[in-house]
Amino acid sequence: MRNAKDLSDSQTPYERQIPLFPLQAVLFPGGFLPLYIFEPRYRTMIKFCLDHESEFGVVLIKEGEEVGETATPYEVGTAARILHVEHLDDGCMNIITAGEYRFEILEIQEHLSYLTGRVRMLDDPEAEIESVSESLTAQTEELYKAYEALSSRLIFAWHPPEEQPDDPRELAYQVGIRLRISLKEKQALLETIPLEQLLTREVEILTDENRRIAFQLTARNN
Fold first, then answer.
1. How would you class 37 by CB atoms within 10 Å of its CB: exposed for 0-12, middle for 13-18, buried for 19 or more?
2. Which uninterrupted H or E stretch holds 153?
3. Hey, how many other C-beta atoms are within 10 angstroms of the C-beta on 186?
């Protein structure tokens, strides 16, 4: 039977063993996710990650709930690195995490109190970026700028990021983070692996969202 130490000893360049955290959330690389850790199993998991400087996998729940019996996750998630920990007097923790890379679950193990998985990294930086056309990147950038501007007019508390990424992959991830769509729609974007295909789908969503927001603004002003 494997133990927690085996997780830190099972690393390869593209496959590794990491703890898994099923949540009602979709995390993209480059995104931030604050979490309140209160269940004993996940307090143990976070302690392991801190002790071994390990990331853990954030995976959207497919079946089940966050609390109680172990939920069934989707097969694609994002590895989260812990940036900050606040230890509370009752043993609970507030943590801030950042998404690092997308992965596919190859195998799930249930030998610990929390899920662990053998995962395969999905992002191949150089090959995918070379395949993305400049016109598609430019179209995504234009639609995304419009989306942020329109959202700022519609929602008082909306604050666009100070900078827009130049890198096509980072742009695709930021769009995924910022879109106000359902978790299942975000998960579908996360699972879209070829970068050109991901940007193409985001262009379609941004086009629809910009039309919807523009209509809402027009209706509000009439």
1. buried
2. helix 134-154
3. 19
The interaxial angle of helices 134-154 and 195-221, nearest 10 deg, is 30
Quick one: pLDDT band at residue 5, thresholds 50, 70, 90? Answer: very low
For residue 61, the domain's CATH number is 2.30.130.40
The answer to which of 62-76, 107-121, 180-194 has the lowest mean pLDDT is: 62-76
Asked whether residue 151 falls in the same domain as residue 209, the answer is yes
Residue 183: CB atoms within 10 Å: 14
Q: Residue 61: exposed, middle, or buried by beta-carbon count in 10 A (0-12, 13-18, 19+)?
A: middle
pLDDT of 222 higher than 80: no
Question: Of 121, 144, 167, which residue is a domain's last?
Answer: 121
> Tokens at residue 6, please?
């085996």
Please indicate, yes or no, whether residues 189 and 158 belong to a single structural domain of this protein.
yes
Per-residue pLDDT averaged across 6-16, rounded?
Answer: 61
| Average pLDDT over the chain, rounded to an integer | 90
Judged by DSSP in three states, 75 sits in coil
Which of these three, 89, 121, 153, is where a domain ends?
A: 121
| C-alpha to C-alpha distance for 143 and 205, rounded to whole angstroms | 10
pLDDT of residue 66: 61
The residue written with tokens 């930086």 in the block is 125
